[in-house]
Request: fold
Amino acid sequence: MPLIEAHGLTKQFRQAVKEPGLVGSLKHFFTRQYKDKLAVDHIDLSVEAGESVAYLGPNGAGKSTTIKMLTGILVPTSGSLIVDGLVPHEKRQQNARKMGVVFGQRTQLWWDIPVIESFNLARDMYEIPAARYKANLAEFTELLGLAEFMNIPAGKVSLGQRMRADLCMALLHEPKLLYLDEPTIGLDIAVKDSIRKFIHRLVEERGTTVMLTTHDLGDIEDICNRIVIIDSGKIIHDGGLADLKDNYARDRVIHFQLARPPASMEPICAGLPACDLHADGLSLSVRFDRFEFAAGEIAAAVMPHVEVIDFRIDEPEVEDLIRRVYLGQLSLAAPEPTADTPESAVAAEA
Amino acid sequence: MRGLNKYFSIAKASLEVIFVYRAGFAFNMIGTVFYVVAMFYLWQTIFLGKPGALGGFTWPEMKAYLIVAFILNSTMTWFDEWTMGSDIREGRVATDLARPIDFQLKRFAEAIGPVPFELVSALGIGAVVAVVFGGIALPADPVHLALFIVSAALATLLKFAIIYCVSMVAFWTTGMEGVQNARMAVQNIFSGALIPLVFFPEWLRGFASVLPFQGMISTPALTYLGAMDGPTTAFMIGTQAVWVVGLMLFGRLLWRSAIKAVTINGG
Amino acid sequence: MAVKVAIATRLRRARWLTYIYFRCLGQQMKAILAYEADFVILLISAGLVQITGFLFIWTVFQRIPDINGWTFWQVVMMYSLIFITEGVGSLFFEGTWRVSRLVYNGNFDQILVRPVSPIVQVLAGAVGFNGLGNIVTGGALLAISLGNVPAQWTPGRLLMLVILIISAATIRVAINLATSACAFWIKTPWSMVPMFVHQLGEFAKYPITIYSMAVQAMVVVAIPFAFVSFFPTAYLFNMESWSAIGLLTPLVAVYCMFMAVWIFRVGLRRYESTGH
Reply:
């Protein structure tokens, strides 16, 4: 049985329709007009134990709303959701014992008290047996380098330190499931790297199931074996990184390094009518659809007209790919994602 | 005059803030009405049980006293130790120091900005309460009304000067909530906000008379009622003015020495 | 047998929650005690507020023998009960005043992802040390006014005194908790509704017989502040027509707490967090 199973999961927010100002508030009080906003729109999602899932989407796509339903913070409007045999919002506290949460923008640590005291409070709240608490704390302190700021209040440590401490706190009770919402936002590269390594190790060694939302593609490549993309409340991709590339990445770019600037571009262009050519001094690049041309065909079309010293082929970066998914710039064989989302207003939310 | 334009703008901006937070303002205002209404019922019961004057007050005069106290207490509520204290503590005053403006004047502009709005609201609420409780005594004559307006203006200045001085404590402590509560407790009893000072026994009245707080409620309210004779009125309003000037200057002195101390301490 | 086990489980759960509550509260206290000067200032200011309040009542009673048949020490007792219960609210349950901001900022999320009752977490969410000042001065005023109660202090009456004080504090905290839950409906960064209702407590400082029927109905039925001060005082001083109602205070406390928890739970289901 999957660890997370959602069917037709939907969250609709009611927004008051009111004019600005006191008069507007008064009017609203009597007219009670609302506009419905579908933040998550009938999604089906199934996650097996041990998977590490990157949950991606542009701002306002419904990522956080989904995570908040999974953690029991929000009550779904409709659909079913079972996490490890429990309905999260009904058995919120039981669900909470089995999960760890790290919100990059918010800390779970108590602001005014030393980090170690926050951990001790977590021990009591999660009823962690003393021996396991001690062992876990020692291990995480070592791996995350927490010792130097253990006795400083959370409000006074740096963002990177806080993030590491938050991770530790989320894991002290050995949760089956770890939700990470933008865990590396605002951190420097060294800290990002250590956090990614740590999570990777967690997945490998402890078999913790990880669900991660991020805007940083480095997080995905280092941690996740599955990518789910949500846009306007609907899941538009669910599969591995390679699937994503296969489905969406039809474009390739060949860069030629030339001995001399081309005398004229016209014959080359004539030979490659369906491609996008770009020449700049001694470099020439050709963007082509790999389902229509083979790279060799492009080279064969270019070579007769110029003297090529060197060339290389660019595969699309995942980052670029996902950016284009977000922007709705995709042309692909996979099901058209944006055509049937009439609630495009959803995308306007913050 | 041109030099004052910038302070006028600051006051205007400060007034606009109240409109942004009008819901909070309205709730605050209605909350204080409960207090006034409770006081009205209390005094009504006391006066009904004992016909005639009490401490020299008739019931209509007492009602007028309570309304005047309410209105004066309802002005300049957005300027307090907490706001200014957090500006000092979080270093926001540093930007003020870098500007070609007078710090005390700027603070005064901020404090006075919302006063017209507070005044209109308080007058409205006061009028309703007064009507519900069967009307209040009106000023004895136009002269007393004019003197009352002067005295009320001085009372507002005095409130500013006191809060300004107390706020300087923020240079030494972060506990502005407690400091503010303490100031308000002392002010409430010695300004005559809770009860006219004439009700006090001799020793307590003597104590109140040497403090500046009586100028905040008691002096303007008694002026309104014409309860003091000519020379006494003049003396009391003069006392108000002296306290205003003295505390304003004292505030400037405190500010200057505090800034110096902070700079030396390596701010 | 099954019932016995269920009760035992519940009791264990309650004991654990109490422990967690005090653990959280203890941490908050430690954090505040780090600012020693603030702590002292808060205590002193709370004491000052009450002394001036007492001075007011005392001054009034210098001129009149009683208010509607209520004497000086009776009014002082009402007054002290209002302040003691307010002190208990600040010192132990100040967290209710933080709910508005937590909900407004979406920081209530943090409370919901922990395996502990949100209400317990809210109640233990902050400490107001001014409450200690209120409890001490209010307690002193209560003690003196109790000394002026004409009746004999039998063990039964002493027990009732304790029950009344606990009930009064419970009512106060329940009102705070219920109004704090308004944050789930009305989103503002300040505790607007709680403050508003809190101000209604002004009416409970004096005998409610001085008010019109509408005001009386408000503080007896709608928001039962009268059971915090007036009715307990009436019982302790054996005020004929009112003392029997004073015996209802514990029931009112249970009812208030029940309603508060219910309102809070309903509100919780409406919680929408922020930034979807």
